[in-house]
Specification:
The chain has about 350 residues and is of the alpha/beta class. Helices cover about 40% and strands about 15% of the residues. The chain is built from 15 helices and ten strands. Strands 1, 2, 3, 4, 5, 6, 7, 8, 9 and 10 form a ten-stranded mixed β-sheet that branches. The N terminus is likely disordered.
């Protein structure tokens, strides 16, 4: 367990004790620190926080967790030490806004640098980077250089597709985007077609789909873009380099309606004790320097249009993001999940 995690947990414990004892909420003063709750892995976020602290002198205390952080902020209420929450998936960002966990981001960097479609209308949250849901195809067995999401429902793809569980956030985001853009009935037909072309019941991770392309189990995996960079540069598990080398990326609907994107983003907690420093952190994460670190370290797409993706990412082609507003996608997530259940998508092909 890291020292920063211990600090964050100790803060919560002390505040909770005060609350239980009936003490009034302490008067938080602005200080030289900022407390971050993060769903993002430490290896992805820490390089950014190290630069932020080096440039501002503000100490970054971080609590990392795979889930439950929104619930924790809500339960802590006015006593929460959280200043900034960094998360993935538009559903988490909109969910925090709807649950009243956010406050207005006031750094001028937000309006100046983030396109309107990638931030809340009331400035309660912002995207920090973009990730695209794309196709990884076999270099040996797939000749196509352009495909649409609709193409993979065609008979020639029977038994050739693979993906992770349909109810995973990445796939829910894709299905919700289809509902927002095309309606529920058309999406039902599309998702049934994808299901019936699966090589095996959805399982495993995005990386496992690419592994199975090398193994010949499937020819096309629905996977996020950044995994290609992560696998190609994975010295700890060099077999992943072989998985990635067996596939190439196609951006679905690149010349049409565009490729579905989701986001990693953040918000300032409603009761942030260090709100000024929280705004400084959000502003830094939207700077050219931080956006380039996102691009070069994580192989994600910068949310700031003037910052270029990593050279490796650019080698996969040009991203044309679908124009469906993120808030509309979030609004259809429950329908998307219900559709996965209704069609028994996770059981795989039905004929």
């Amino acid at each position: 367990m890291t020292n920063t995690t211990n600090i964050a947990r100790l803060s919560v414990a002390l505040l909770t004790t005060a609350c239980l004892a009936g003490a009034a909420a302490p008067a938080f003063a602005q200080s030289g620190e900022v407390n971050i709750y993060s769903y993002r892995e430490q290896s992805l976020l820490q390089p950014l926080l190290d630069r932020f602290s080096a440039e501002t002198g503000i100490k970054a205390n971080v609590l990392y967790a795979g889930d439950g952080l929104l619930e924790r902020v809500e339960a802590e209420g006015e006593l929460s030490p959280a200043d900034v929450v960094v998360t993935v998936d538009i559903g988490n960002l909109v969910g925090a806004q709807e649950r009243g966990l956010t406050q207005k981001i006031t750094t001028p960097m937000l309006d100046e640098r983030v396109p309107a479609e990638f931030r809340a209308e009331d400035d309660s949250w912002t995207a920090l980077s973009l990730r695209a849901r794309v196709f990884y195809v076999s270099k040996d067995r797939v000749d196509a250089t352009a495909l649409s999401y609709d193409d993979i429902t065609k008979p020639e793809w029977k038994g050739r597709l693979c993906t992770r569980a349909g109810d995973h956030a990445y796939n829910i985001g894709l299905i919700a985007q289809r509902i927002a853009a095309n309606g529920l009935e058309e999406t039902r037909t599309w998702l049934a077609g994808v299901r019936d072309n699966l090589a095996y019941p959805p399982a495993g991770s995005d990386r496992e789909g690419v592994k199975n392309i090398l193994a010949g189990t499937c020819d096309l995996s629905i996977t996020n873009t950044y995994y290609m960079g992560a696998m190609l540069n994975n010295d700890a598990e060099p077999e992943q380099k072989q998985w990635a080398a067996a596939a190439r990326i196609i951006y679905p609907d690149a010349d049409g309606d565009g490729t579905q994107v989701n986001v990693a983003g953040g918000f300032i907690a409603k009761y942030a004790p260090n709100a000024e420093n929280a705004n400084a952190l959000i502003g830094f994460l939207l700077s050219d320097e931080a956006q380039q670190i996102y691009a070069d370290t994580n192989y994600e797409f910068p949310v700031v249009p003037s910052v270029a993706p990593a050279e490796l990412t650019q080698s996969w082609g040009k991203l044309n993001p679908a124009k469906t507003p993120l808030t509309e996608i979030a609004a259809h997530r429950d329908e998307a999940a219900a559709l996965v259940d209704e069609l028994k998508f996770n059981e795989g092909a039905q004929n």
